[in-house]
């Protein structure tokens, strides 16, 4: 069975925190693969490493793993604007990559977690389509699932620098798009977000931020932190792992962008092949799931604070 071995340290954490049992792993994988073979509506990847990612993200609960796999492939077909045309060589994506919108940092934090630095890369709200930025976000997450076992075992930490966010960026956000993104990440991906840090957020952007939080589960909201500046951020994220521009030791952002670009482009074949996977609702046993079933907004809003 073609599976990357975990380091002794990672394996101990996986046993303790994810209920991973090396002696039962093959049996669990075979069970999930057999279940997938009986789902006429799904066109899934079935390689052991990919399925193991979902098992780990669901703490080896077989029922939760089945639900998340079904959701993942259902969302892929329901949201072509986010899951199609994911060739990293496509000019629109190349621009986002080279601007450094999202970059996994080279070193983990003090708890071993993968840290992802995000930045609003242009003060011009019309320079890059929001759907392309979110598409790229999902591409990055798929890459981590495929290559970085730390992201599943220790979890991830996200940092978003809003220094260039303006009132003009708000016009591209909508409750519908926010609900879709929140639903996909929370219900479709097995990634384990441990903290979300927002820094340098202008007061004009708080409306969108509060809107997005209405779609997030309570556990994620409790792990979300706002920081007025980088000094505040560094009380929770070690400065040493940050780029030079943030006072850290990870080197200049330009070098980090170039290293990450090469990795993403090397993964190009995976993204191109991934186009064939998804879901056919016409073949789903029982009642097909509609767009409203998946992403309906009714009952989603709580009181917004738009100060």
Explain how this protein is built:
This protein is α/β, with parallel strands linked by helices and 307 residues long. The chain has one domain (15-284): CRAL-TRIO lipid binding domain (Phosphatidylinositol Transfer Protein Sec14p, 3-Layer(aba) Sandwich), CATH 3.40.525.10. Helix content is 47%, strand content 10%. The protein is built from 15 helices and seven strands. The chain has helices spanning 8-18, 25-37, 48-57, 62-78, 80-83, 91-99, 130-147, 149-153, 175-188, 206-214, 218-222, 230-233, 253-266, 268-273, 291-295, and strands spanning 42-43, 102-104, 114-119, 156-161, 193-199, 224-227, 278-279. The strands form two sheets. A five-stranded mixed beta sheet has the order 2-3-4-5-6. Helix 2 (25-37) packs across helix 3 (48-57). The radius of gyration is 19 Å and the shape is globular.
Model regions low in confidence, pLDDT < 50 over at least 5 residues:
299-307
The CATH superfamily title: CRAL-TRIO lipid binding domain
Averaging pLDDT over every residue, what do you get?
A: 91
In the residues, how many domains can be counted? 1
Overall shape: globular
Q: Describe the largest sheet.
A: 5 strands, mixed
Report the total helices. 15
| Fraction of residues in β-strands | 5-15%
* Count of distinct strands: 7
CATH topology: Phosphatidylinositol Transfer Protein Sec14p
* Strand arrangement across the biggest beta sheet: 2-3-4-5-6
Work out the helicity level.
Answer: 40-55%
């Amino acid at each position: 069975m073609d599976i990357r071995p975990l380091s002794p340290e990672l394996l101990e954490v996986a046993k303790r925190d994810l209920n991973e049992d090396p002696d039962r792993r093959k049996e669990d994988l075979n069970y999930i693969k057999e279940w997938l073979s009986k789902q006429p509506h799904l066109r899934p990847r079935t390689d052991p490493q990919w399925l193991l990612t979902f098992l780990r993200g669901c703490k080896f609960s077989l029922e939760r793993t089945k639900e998340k796999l079904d959701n993942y492939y259902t969302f892929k077909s329901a949201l072509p604007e986010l899951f199609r045309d994911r060739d990293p060589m496509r000019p629109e994506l190349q621009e986002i990559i080279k601007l450094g919108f999202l970059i996994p940092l080279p070193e983990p934090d003090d708890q071993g977690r993968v840290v992802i630095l995000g930045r609003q890369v242009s003060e011009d709200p019309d320079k890059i389509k929001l759907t392309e930025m979110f598409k790229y976000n999902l591409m990055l997450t798929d890459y981590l699932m495929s290559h970085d076992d730390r992201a599943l075992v220790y979890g991830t930490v996200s940092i978003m620098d809003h220094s260039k966010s303006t009132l003009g960026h708000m016009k591209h956000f909508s409750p519908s798009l926010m609900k879709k993104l929140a639903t996909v990440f929370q219900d479709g991906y097995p990634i384990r977000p441990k903290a979300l840090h927002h820094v340098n957020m202008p007061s004009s952007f708080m409306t969108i931020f509060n809107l997005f939080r209405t779609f997030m589960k309570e556990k994620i909201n409790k792990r979300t932190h706002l920081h007025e500046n980088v000094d505040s951020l560094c009380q929770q994220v070690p400065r040493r792992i940050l780029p030079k521009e943030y006072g850290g030791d990870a080197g200049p952002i330009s070098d980090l962008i170039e290293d990450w670009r090469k990795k993403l482009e090397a993964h190009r074949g995976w993204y191109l092949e991934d186009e064939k996977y998804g879901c056919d609702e016409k073949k789903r046993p029982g009642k097909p799931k509609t767009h409203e079933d998946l992403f309906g907004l009714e009952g989603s809003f709580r009181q917004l604070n738009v100060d």
